[in-house]
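Quick question, first post here. What does this chain look like in 3D?
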Amino acid sequence: MVEKLESADLEHAQLDLPQQRLLEFVKRLTLEPAETTDAEVEGLREVGWSDAQIAEAVYVTALFAFFNRVSDAFGLKSPGYRELETPPAQFE
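> Answer (accepted):
Ran it through. Tokens below.
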């Protein structure tokens, strides 16, 4: 499933309908933020997402866009976590 999500293959990622709809909305919000509609938000409500959960998804999506742009602007390199065979050590 992770591989499908990383490649944005939502159709084959074995998600339930609410998860799939939310990720479709997040994808649209990322790629075409000015094109999102009230009907899309209503569709999220219809599959069980609350207004607070939808707002949180919007905030998280916006923050990731912000972090990526700041990182790019300062030329920060990827830490390469995805290439590691084991995750980095956790701090206690």
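The domain at 2-83 is CATH 1.20.1290.10 (AhpD-like).
The chain has a mean pLDDT of 87.
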